Amino acid sequence: MFTGIVTDIGEILSVHPRAEGLSRLKIACSYPRASIVDGASIACSGVCLTVVGAGQEDRTWFAADAAAETMAITTVGTWRAGSRINLERPLRIGDELGGHVVAGHVDGMAQILKRDDLPDMARFTLRAPRAVSKFIAAKGSVVLDGCSLTVNEVSGDDFTVLIIPHTLAVTTLSGWQQGQNVNLEVDLMARYAARLMEPR
User: Fold this and answer.
1) Given 29, 43, 48, 54, which residue is catalytic?
2) Of residues 14, 30, 68, 105, which has the active-site annotation?
3) Does residue 96 lie in a domain region?
4) In terms of residue numbers, what domain contains 164?
5) pLDDT tens for residues 68-92?
6) Closest CA to 27 of 62, 1, 2, 78
7) Which of 7, 22, 35, 145 is most exposed, with minimal Cβ within 10 Å?
8) Is the domain of 77 the same as that of 117?
């Protein structure tokens, strides 16, 4: 589990295709090398990936494998050497829950329809996939590229989020542009509520 509070910006060092539809990602980060162990989970722009190796060169790095399905339904398939991604370590018992409960299981990609640059802030209008847009509500929570955000307005499949200066400074969201796709995870609570209301 995660909270959607980004703790580092990683850099893709390499992407190597492997057998059986897997791709091996090598990702640089600022986490202490000793704190990263094989089998650990790290949210990479909202995608929960499992560490399969780690090391130390100029920076700490870790490796993770992405399956074909992950490459197809998330932005992982577009990552190349030099791509910057938001990183978060898993929530531990006793940690502050600063965002909301996040699984790291991306529901699909949202497309940025519009960017409005405001004084020190940015407002984005996005379109969610039809299959999950019903789970997005005004004043509710979503995860976009690993960041826990509050939804401002909703109109059909479209919704807006307002990004504050701190978030722009410590995440990759400052680089978002119109037409870009970003990873979307809807609120788990909304999913369960909708399931409970389904007719039996």
Assistant:
1) 48
2) 105
3) no
4) 108-197
5) 999 999 999 999 999 999 999 998 7
6) 62
7) 35
8) no
